[in-house]
């Protein structure tokens, strides 16, 4: 985020939070508010830590100010760094404020603050996918869990499953792209992980057609790549063809499942027709090779 955008963002937050900040009763909290309004966030946090060790901590607004300052440190000082401790501190302080706030005087401000923090975790979950390795997506999943935890606090009826499916689909796409780039060398771990991610997504109800369809298409494409890699080596054709056929049959089964999930999507039928043609062509390739052997062609 550019310095200009950060300044504009914080100015907006200061305006939206001004009523809550001005309602702070304790002298230390008010001093911290003044420092925060002057964008002296680190000094403000030092004062807030003192306030939290006094009776001022009984005031929910004290915790809101603490959360606001920590959030500002997360944005300004840390540049929204994914592993910023200030974001975690801001979240904890905002939740503590809500627990100490029986009257909804800070409700709108808390919802805005926590929603922003949740959204940054959601963005970081997507960004972390790009650096994930086969079987290792802990960072992405951790950010998504933090996002879901905040949303669940804001709304106890929050359904995290669609977002979990989204992340598995995203991880699957990332893995299949890496498998394609690796071609034969090193493609296996990426391809297998991509299938595992999409299978996990397809095991859930949300967006199931997409999960099944994409898994089938990537499986078919991997079979095509493996077969093409050996088409100039007649001795390797048999093995490559058998391996490709395994993947193509898996793709066909996956597409049949996708069609059963949503029979109104034309893309399922179109893809199944292509895969079926590849399986039919397999017999022709074997027939041609048998004739070449009979003719004495190596």
Unreliable stretches covering 5 or more consecutive residues:
1-12
**Strand element count:** 0
Distance between the termini: 62 Å
Biggest pleated sheet:
none
Strand proportion, as a percent range, falls in: under 5%
Helix content: over 70%
Secondary-structure element series: HHHHHHHHHHHH
Round the Cα radius of gyration to an integer and report it.
28 Å
How would the global form be characterised? elongated
Structural class: mainly alpha
**What's the tally of helices?**
12
Mean pLDDT: 87
Give your account of this protein's structure.
With 298 residues, the protein is mainly α. The protein has a domain at 190-298. The chain has helices spanning 3-22, 27-37, 41-51, 60-77, 85-99, 107-129, 138-154, 161-182, 187-202, 208-228, 234-261, 266-294.
List keywords for this structure.
298 residues; mainly alpha; 12 helices; elongated
Question: Could you provide a short overview of the structure?
Answer:
With 298 residues, the protein is mostly helical.
Q: How would you summarize the topology of this molecule?
A:
Blueprint: H1 3-22, H2 27-37, H3 41-51, H4 60-77, H5 85-99, H6 107-129, H7 138-154, H8 161-182, H9 187-202, H10 208-228, H11 234-261, H12 266-294
Helix pairs in contact: 1-4, 2-3, 3-4, 4-5, 5-6, 6-7, 8-9, 8-10, 9-10, 10-11, 11-12
